[in-house]
Design goal:
With 224 residues, the chain is of the alpha+beta class.
Length: 224
């Protein structure tokens, strides 16, 4: 896809309402685990209030194990249109596929608490290193905007990173990323339930911490 090659993202995939509804129902009834404590006690979506479980734990993210157990999730992974986009970009049938389905809970946690105690590091700009060639397909399962965990990215930052950004940490401050690539390349991806985008996540990207509404997102990682 030319858009992914040039900008690192293609926005324009949309899931049908019945698939969205089925994934939403699945995610509301499955046991969840805290991202920082994957083997700890599970909880259900309905039990979480402003990022807190009934036993008093603070949770920024709640993950679902093996989301492909849902036929609707599996249908997204196997969708021929998505597969054709991915294969065209990777120039190879992906050898490894990982599926992630998790809730990001609206809360009043400050950014330092998210980073240090809750291990919610994706609120900071970073790029992924997942093999020689890889791409993500992400789908909002609920209406999503900048107040409910919208994805933020810096277009064209998957190429021509200076050496200082390639050595050491894959994370960088918002100021540094904006200075290097220009604010005109920064976009916030917002949209109604079902909105999807395919992204080369070797670009700089981050998630906005949800403050008003919870976010449910399905992400599928394809690795060459």
């Amino acid at each position: 896809m030319e858009a992914i090659s040039t900008d690192a993202v293609y926005v324009g995939l949309n899931l049908p309402p019945d698939i969205v509804a089925e994934i939403d129902e699945f995610a509301r009834t499955e046991p969840l685990h805290a991202n920082y404590d994957p083997n700890g006690p599970t909880f259900s979506y309905g039990e979480v209030q402003r990022g807190r479980t009934p036993d008093g734990r603070s949770v920024a993210l709640g993950g679902i194990r093996e989301p492909c157990r849902s036929p609707a999730v599996q249908a997204v992974v196997n969708d021929p249109v998505l597969r054709s986009i991915v294969t065209a970009y990777l120039r190879h049938t992906p050898r490894q596929i990982t599926t992630i389905l998790h809730w990001s809970f609206a809360s009043d946690f400050d950014e330092e608490e998210r980073r240090k105690r809750l291990r919610h590091h994706v609120i900071d700009y970073h790029y992924d290193v997942s093999g020689f060639n890889f791409v993500y397909a992400s789908f909002y399962i609920g209406d999503t905007d900048r107040y409910s965990g919208a994805h933020v990215m810096m277009k064209r930052s998957h190429k021509r990173k200076p050496l200082r950004m390639l050595l050491g940490s894959a994370s960088a401050s918002q100021e540094d990323v904006r200075r290097q690539f220009g604010m005109d390349n920064e976009i916030i991806i917002e949209g109604p339930a079902g909105t999807g985008f395919v992204q080369d996540t070797s670009c700089y990207h981050r998630a906005t911490p949800p403050t008003l509404r919870d976010r449910l997102m399905l992400a599928v990682r394809f690795i060459n």
